[in-house]
Amino acid sequence: MARSAILNIMCQAASKAGRSLTRDFGEVENLQVSRKGPADFVSNADKGAEKIIFEELQYARPTYSFLMEEGGEVKGSDGQHRWIIDPLDGTTNFLHSIPLFAVAIALERNGEIVASVIYNPIMEELYTAERGAGAWLNNRRLRVAGRKKLADAVLSTGIKVTGTSNDAKAMKQLAAISPTCAGIRRTGSACTDLAWLAAGRFDGYWEAKLAPWDIAAGLLLVREAGGFVTDLSGRDKAIEKGEVLAGNEQIHGSLLKALKAID
Predict the structure, then answer these.
(1) Going by C-beta distance under 8 Å and a sequence separation of 6 or more, which residues neighbour residue 62?
(2) CA distances from 189 to 6, 76, 221 (A)
(3) What strands, in cross-sheet order, belong to the sheet with 183-185?
(4) Beta strands in 49-164, from DSSP E residues, in sequence order
(5) Which residues, including other chains, have CB under 8 Å from residue 38's CB and lie 6 or more apart?
(6) Do the beta carbons of residue 205 and residue 197 sit within 8 Å?
(7) Cβ atoms 22, 121 nearer than 8 A
(8) CB–CB of 203/251 below 8 Å?
(9) pLDDT digits (tens, 9 = 90+) for 211-238
(10) pLDDT tens digits for 52-101?
């Protein structure tokens, strides 16, 4: 597939950060046996990957703004463009040597996501999307799965363990929806959930209490793969509200109805 100049820049930044994370991932596996554990090391790996992405993107587009998980917001002079970056989505997986994590980069133009990259360096899976140009996994065009019934669907969600009020609600949702579908999975990486939905591996996905960098890149991937993405009330405010509901038209509609029926 032919990529635009801006998408090539994003892929280069993600690839460079991915190589750094791959090296660090090998070290984490060794650190697992130590008493102290690899938590501090992983934090440094996260910050190191973000620094790589920031420097690559700032060099290529010095006037653009940034919103980053670690570094926060950096204002640029452009006023129209903003990079939204998660250098290591799936930190807990990384910490436990589970190879389900990814680099996520989205480009926002005047408040709308127009390009995105999600890269899992261990699996060597590079997901890319541009508005109007489709979604891709490496060089393969993506389409969301065509299953129409929840009974046939494998869904994904996030289950927090922080003891917040939302955790009880999430467990209630899980208990209500689980009997209606073919299965529910939990990857521990929101951008992976959305990428796998775009690839047809998952049929639907819902989760709340998310940050913009968790979902920005994945939203465009799903839409460009023919899927529907909203917040949990069915509105186009996923990033603003920090919640997402995604699937093809039928699965999205069925999940929306099911979630609304839960008190």
Answers:
(1) 76
(2) 25, 29, 15
(3) 183-185, 154-157, 204-207, 244-247, 228-230
(4) 65-68, 72-74, 81-89, 102-109, 112-120, 125-130, 135-137, 140-141, 154-157
(5) 27, 28, 31, 32, 95
(6) yes
(7) yes
(8) yes
(9) 999 999 999 999 999 999 999 999 999 9
(10) 999 999 999 999 999 998 889 999 999 899 999 999 999 889 888 899 99
Q: Which residues of 201-234 are buried (b: 16+ CB within 10 A; e: fewer)?
A: bbbbbbbbbbebbbbbbbbbbbbbbbbbbbbbee
85: amino acid identity, one letter = I
Return the SS3 of 209.
coil
Rounded Cα distance, 72 and 65, in Å: 11
Q: Cα–Cα distances in Å, from 65 out to 7, 69, 242?
A: 17, 14, 20
Residue 229 parent element (H or E):
strand 228-230
Residues contacting 2, CB < 8 A, separation 6+: none
Amino acid identity for residue 8 in this structure: N
The amino acid at 179: P
At residue 92, what is the residue type? T
* Domains located in the chain, CATH noted: 5-141 (3.30.540.10), 150-260 (3.40.190.80)
Give the whole-angstrom CA distance, residue 162 versus residue 233.
24
111-135 pLDDT tens trace: 999 999 999 999 999 999 999 999 9
pTM to 2 decimals? 0.93
Q: What is the DSSP letter of 234?
A: S
* Gap between the Cα atoms of 103 and 53, Å rounded: 9
